[in-house]
Amino acid sequence: MIKTLSALLMSISLIQAFELNTQMKKFMDELLIEAKKQNPNLKEFDYSRGEKIFTTEQVGKKGKKISCVTCHTADLSKKGLNENTNKAIEPLSPLANPKRFTDTKEVKKWLKRNFNDVYNREGTAQEQGDVVTYIINKK
Ligand code: HEC
Fold first, then answer.
1. Fewer CB atoms inside 10 Å of the end CB: C or N, the chain?
2. What confidence score (pLDDT) does residue 72 get?
3. Which residues contact ligand 1 via a Cβ below 6 A?
4. Confidence class for position 1, pLDDT limits 50, 70, 90
């Protein structure tokens, strides 16, 4: 009975974990190779570093205090609101929104643009990998 129960619980947690598709896995592998070139001590991307990048306020491109949370909210399973255009943004978490992190072109484009909005630069390979690791794993 206990065995069956723990097997059941395990399969539930497996269903909840988010699995990247092939093109996204490749994108993350390439980012890690690039990041290791810039920082040879780097082992892997890190959730906590990513969380800091996502939640820390900066004086952004428009000269106002802004963070990733400003538009995407701190609860990534909820809809966000674009500060600049006042338009709703669908949830960023792939657990809540299965379209997220499926198309590397979209991901690259928005990481670049959004890093520029907040940090006035594109973000290094390590920063991009850390922040994606945070977003896709945050429950
Ligand atoms: C000024 C508002 C704004 C800020 C600030 C912002 N974003 Fe976004 N983000 C958007 C919009 C708008 C989109 C594109 C519309 C959509 O996909 O719903 C988007 C899309 C994305 C996507 C695309 C995901 C996918 O697969 O579709 C990622 C990744 C992302 N943002 C990460 C970030 C990160 C990391 C930060 C902080 C560095 C950030 N965003 C800050 C507005 C913002």
1. N
2. 98
3. 54, 66, 68, 70-72, 82-84, 89-90, 100-101, 106-107, 110-111, 114-115, 117-118, 131
4. low
What tens digit of pLDDT does each residue of 66-120 get?
999 999 999 999 999 998 899 999 999 999 999 999 999 999 999 999 999 999 9
Instruction: Please name the helix (run of DSSP H) or strand (run of DSSP E) that holds residue 102, with its range, or none.
Output: none
Q: Please state which CATH number belongs to domain 20-137.
A: 1.10.760.10
Strand, coil or helix: 1: coil
Three-class DSSP category at 59: strand
The H or E element spanning position 14 is: helix 2-16
